[in-house]
Amino acid sequence: MDDDPTTEILEATYRALCQHGYANLTVGDIAAEAERSKSLVHYYYGSKANLFSEFLRFLYNEYTTQLTSIEDEPPREQLFSILDIVLSDDETTPSQELRTAMLEVKVQAPYDDAIQARLRRFDDFLFERVQEIIIAGVDAGEFADDVNPTVAAEFFVTTITGAHTRRVAVGYPSERLYEPITRYVETHLLAAETTGDPR
Amino acid sequence: MDDDPTTEILEATYRALCQHGYANLTVGDIAAEAERSKSLVHYYYGSKANLFSEFLRFLYNEYTTQLTSIEDEPPREQLFSILDIVLSDDETTPSQELRTAMLEVKVQAPYDDAIQARLRRFDDFLFERVQEIIIAGVDAGEFADDVNPTVAAEFFVTTITGAHTRRVAVGYPSERLYEPITRYVETHLLAAETTGDPR
What we know:
Chain A is mainly α. The first copy, chain A, contains 9 helices and no strands. Chains A, B: GO terms for molecular function: DNA-binding transcription factor activity; transcription cis-regulatory region binding.
């Protein structure tokens, strides 16, 4: 745990959100999780809405750091690393509880412009990263040259979002949802000719 | 409007859900929308939880009727008709309000087995319909014979779910989300050789 109370509070927000969900989350829950007083939390972050907005910025920074950490890989590997990062279930990535809470947050978006603006940054970042990688892959001849990077990136982001939603809504195990995505990307979306499968 | 009060109440639930959202929906809202008394609603449907479960059954019946109404079309047309049905925004299909409310319902699924079971029926039905159509299309030579119907159907359902979630969460217009799906299905997922595009 960080010694900086502002970071500690954001890390406590993460744990409190996973535990209580978004709708029921209170500043008191966050303070309890941080082992700090409510008034200290308000001192640093003001209202619950402001704290939550800062929390989404904090999550966004973690997300973008993770998604740019693999920039030195070749395009095809980068794309599969991104799928691993956003779809995997190991302990370093968001738990089922965080996925559920984030879906709750998404439901608020039509009623809360600040939340929607924050969520768009996640969506846009993923879209732009994937688009860049596909452009680089087409240029390098790793992906078929008739792949349209914008259309393909839009498709990726949509499919990844759908995997997250289905995991919460219908509770299918990740293997059922994620393996077909990876398989389809590999064999149909990019450059079938480089997989050894003449398609 | 139907004269049968049980159907009238379910139709009123639809309108009340679009107007109030799921979290705030009360039996009083539904009764007001149906122009009936709360006690009459309880008389026919018991608790709010039971009414809502019956409402999801009613929506499911409408959904499956719509998705089977196109069974006489050839496989490729059926698949695009399904995309039209589940992704279009015209007045006969779910409004943005219903999509938002249904996303709220999905968030409840991890905490409510009855809701999750109902949601799985929608998900399973779409999966099975798409899988059947792809099998028929591969048999008929309309789709490439290396398309795996199970993997492709899983991919479809995930992508469609993602389009619904992104529309609520980031508020992009349908054209941005839906056109790339249709385009990718047409040119990459099924049988590129029948589209006139040599890919």
